[in-house]
């Protein structure tokens, strides 16, 4: 069964929090966003409205409440709470300790953390059976997938109810049955990135050619079929034969390679600093971001057709 009411709280109104709130508003829910910095409120409201429009929903300001503190949230009405505070374990633990005190006993408490296990966030809390990971991918309103992560003490029925609710909001929930670092999608992504950085480090290919090999090669097929289905379609015997030749040569580094570590040490962090593996001026960065979101929006048309 889905969650019973249609009101959610999102804790913090940064880019992720605003996009998550838009998902609920577009689905007909009410969303209360707790953002202590009042200076951010106008940009937060604008971001929520823009995200709604991107996914084809009319912004409804009446469904969005922006609050300055947890104490102001309509706790008796909420059926789901999603924490989107900065990635600090101590901060998240303090937030959930307060949620344990404020929220109704039957309200699921979810963390959008991409790095901290929900079991670690909830350590020592009596409310752990209703705590779960709910990991969205940026931009949250455009990327369909959301990970529903079960902690060691999480009641599976809570995960089931949240997953059904997410599906009703147009998302594609995947249940992660063990609370391991990176959950599911990030583990797959980091396996790819480890090999990609290793190939650049070895001088086998440029960053541009690595990107093109993924986008216009095997990655292109993933819009139509995930890796397991794609191999079923092409033949497991073919993959097994290739794996015998390739697997033992793949990168197995225990730490990020120098080509990544050195850029971080030099402050070359990508768009945010003007250079990473590519060079970025404001115009190029804005153009790339617009193209990225436009391509995701176009891809959604295909994926929505597949789900209908």
Largest sheet: 8 strands, mixed
Under CATH, the topology of the largest domain is which? Rossmann fold
- The Cα radius of gyration reads 21 Å
Distance between the termini: 21 Å
Q: Order of SSEs, N→C?
A: EHEHEEHEHEEHEHHHHHH
- With helices defined by DSSP (H or I, 4 residues minimum), what is the helix count? 11
What strand line-up does the widest sheet have?
3-2-1-4-5-6-7-8
Helix content: 40-55%
Stretches where pLDDT is under 50 for at least 5 consecutive residues are none
CATH class membership of the largest domain: Alpha Beta
- Structural class given helices, strands, pairing? alpha/beta
Mean pLDDT: 95
Total beta-strand segments = 8
What portion of residues belong to β-strands?
5-15%
What's the shape?
A: globular
Number of domains: 3
User: What is the name of the CATH superfamily of the largest domain?
Assistant: NAD(P)-binding Rossmann-like Domain
CATH architecture of the largest domain: 3-Layer(aba) Sandwich
């Amino acid at each position: 069964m889905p969650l019973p009411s249609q009101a959610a709280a999102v804790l913090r109104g940064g880019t992720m929090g605003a996009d998550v709130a838009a998902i609920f508003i577009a689905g007909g829910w009410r969303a209360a966003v707790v953002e202590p910095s009042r200076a951010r409120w106008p940009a937060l409201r604008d971001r929520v409205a823009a995200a709604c429009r991107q996914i084809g929903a009319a912004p409804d300001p009446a469904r969005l409440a922006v609050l300055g503190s947890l104490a102001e949230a309509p706790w008796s009405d909420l059926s789901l709470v999603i924490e989107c505070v900065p990635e600090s374990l101590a901060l998240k633990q303090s937030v959930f300790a307060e949620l344990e005190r404020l929220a109704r006993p039957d309200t699921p408490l979810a963390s959008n953390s991409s790095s901290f296990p929900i079991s670690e966030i909830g350590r020592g809390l009596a409310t752990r059976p209703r705590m779960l990971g709910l990991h969205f991918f940026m931009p949250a309103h455009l990327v369909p997938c959301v990970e529903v992560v079960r902690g060691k003490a999480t009641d599976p029925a809570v995960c089931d109810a949240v997953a059904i609710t997410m599906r009703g909001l147009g998302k594609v929930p995947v249940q992660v049955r063990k609370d391991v670092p990176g959950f599911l999608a990030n583990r797959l992504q980091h396996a790819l990135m480890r090999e990609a950085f290793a190939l650049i480090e070895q001088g086998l290919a440029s960053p541009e050619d690595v990107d093109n090999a993924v986008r216009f090669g095997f990655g292109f097929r993933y819009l139509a079929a995930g890796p397991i289905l794609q191999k079923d379609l092409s033949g497991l015997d073919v993959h097994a034969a290739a794996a015998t030749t390739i697997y033992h040569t793949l990168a197995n580094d225990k730490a990020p390679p120098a080509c990544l570590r050195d850029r971080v040490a030099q402050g070359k962090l990508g768009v945010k600093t003007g250079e990473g593996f590519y060079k970025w001026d404001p115009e190029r960065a804005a153009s790339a971001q617009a193209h990225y979101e436009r391509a995701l929006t176009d891809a959604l048309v295909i994926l929505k057709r597949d789900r209908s």
